[in-house]
TrEMBL record:
Record family assignment: Belongs to the Thz kinase family.
Annotated organism of origin: Sutterella wadsworthensis HGA0223
GO cellular component, one term: cytosol
Protein name: Hydroxyethylthiazole kinase
UniProt entry tagged with the keyword Metal-binding: yes
Keyword Kinase: yes
Length: 267
């Protein structure tokens, strides 16, 4: 299956639409990354909210532009809320993104993620080890960190997309978004992102934000990846270390003009 590089024009249009509409993104994310997730969405031009009580979360999902579900710190009550919100999103035509953090790490976590995946998210966004584990081709990474390269997970991502009917976005040195028939890719970014907690999780929130304004989920996912890689590459030029990279990354998301969103050639 051929892989196409991302269209900078399509990404520019998507970012313009995101900033014009400022979609409300309901984030059911893990406790470690709530602040950076909210700040990344704000900097990019979206509006974050984190409503977690079972009594109101599904109702809030129904009035949101998109839903993010992140399994970084799961427990039974939170998983139940996630399932209810995923169903509410499906019932009300709200796009939603599943970030399967540490899929493959433990049987209970992996089963919970598979049950969420069965509810058919619009986009599944994970690192290579997580995608390989869900595709039955790997055992997961080192905790929440990937031990595999995104390029080695591409065929598994394409197969998983075809089997589930979900667009699969596997990220790493090269990011891929695929529906099993069409695959887009983008390269670039900077290794410094691996030293700042929440950059991957907040990327999934960007996927949700773009899915709220871009009808094609493949384009939505690759637009989010392109924006994140551009911001990471820009931040690395000015940062002295992980602390300053964090701030420079947020600034780059805020300051980038849509027409500037071009990143290196994909491999």
């Amino acid at each position: 299956m051929s892989v196409q590089t991302v269209s900078s024009t399509a990404v520019a249009h998507a970012l313009t639409a995101l900033r014009a509409n400022r979609p409300l993104v309901h984030c059911l994310t893990n406790e470690v990354v709530q602040e950076i997730t909210a700040n990344v969405l704000l900097a990019a031009g979206a509006s974050p909210a984190m409503v977690v009580a079972m009594e109101e979360a599904p109702v809030f999902t129904a009035i949101s532009g998109a839903l993010l579900i992140n399994t970084g710190t799961p427990y039974p009550e939170r998983v139940a809320v996630m399932k209810a919100c995923a169903q509410a999103a499906n019932d009300h035509g709200v796009p939603w993104v599943l970030d399967p953090v540490a899929a493959g790490a433990t049987p209970w976590r992996t089963q919970a993620i598979r049950e969420l995946l069965a509810l058919k998210p619009t986009i599944l966004r994970g690192n290579a080890s997580e995608i390989l584990a869900l595709a039955g081709s790997g055992k997961g990474g080192k905790g929440v960190d990937s031990t595999d390269d995104s390029r080695t997970a591409l065929s598994a991502a394409q197969r998983l997309a075809e089997e589930t009917g979900t667009v699969v976005c596997v990220t790493g040195p090269v990011d891929y978004a695929t529906d099993g028939k069409r695959t887009l890719s983008i390269a670039g970014g900077n290794v410094m992102t691996t030293l700042v907690v929440g950059t991957g999780c907040s990327l999934s929130s960007l996927c949700a934000a773009f899915a709220a304004v871009e009808k094609d989920p493949v384009n939505a996912a690759i637009s989010a990846c392109t924006l994140a890689k551009y911001a990471a590459g820009t931040a690395a030029k000015h940062a002295k270390g992980p602390g300053s990279f964090h701030d420079e990354y947020l600034d780059a998301l805020y300051l980038v003009q849509p027409e500037a969103l071009t990143v290196g050639d994909a491999a």
